[in-house]
Amino acid sequence: MAAELSAHHRRLAQQKREAITTAATELFLDRGYDGTSLARIAEAAGVSKSTLFKRFPTKAALFEAIVTESWQRDAGDAAARPQTGDLRSGLTTVGHRYADLVGQPGMTALFRIVIAELPRFPELGRMQFQLGKLPYFASVQHYLESEHEAGNADVPDAASAANQFLGMIANYVLWPRMLLTDWNPAASDIHDAVEEAVQTMLARYTPTRQPDPKPER
Question: How does pLDDT run across 153-171, given as a tens digit for each residue?
Fold first, then answer.
């Protein structure tokens, strides 16, 4: 019985947390970061002020949580980083996960908030970069380094390769959404964009096999 109550309380706490971060994101977009109070967020989320302040004592702490959760949606997946050994399969997995991540409405909203408020609140940009984009980028870089070390890829500069790969995908899935409110590519088009990015990476980074030496006569 105690275990059931504990699980129930955890579910309620998670539901309240999600309600708070969702309400905050919507209000930041609508009223701006500076124009949104924690009290207004609590009201929109349907929670008490004490509940919100207990979890997020400042707007900065709340925005930090939004950034972290937005970029770590697959963190609970034990296979978040593909196994080394099959470059095509690994890149395909990474590419589709990234497309799903940056294609979600919440990610577009997050970027719009940061861009709109950056002149007055540069710390929001630093949070977005240091807590979100940079750790995700590093995970892809480390995957490419592992393939290089195993001899499955020829990637002398994994940071540059990760930037190229994620950039190709974001350029189709994310950035048009920032300017075009009706940009909503079909799932098949997103799939094709990822596959094209994978093919480009394979063409650039698949090791060239050296011919076997001729036997001496």
Answer: 999 999 999 999 999 999 9
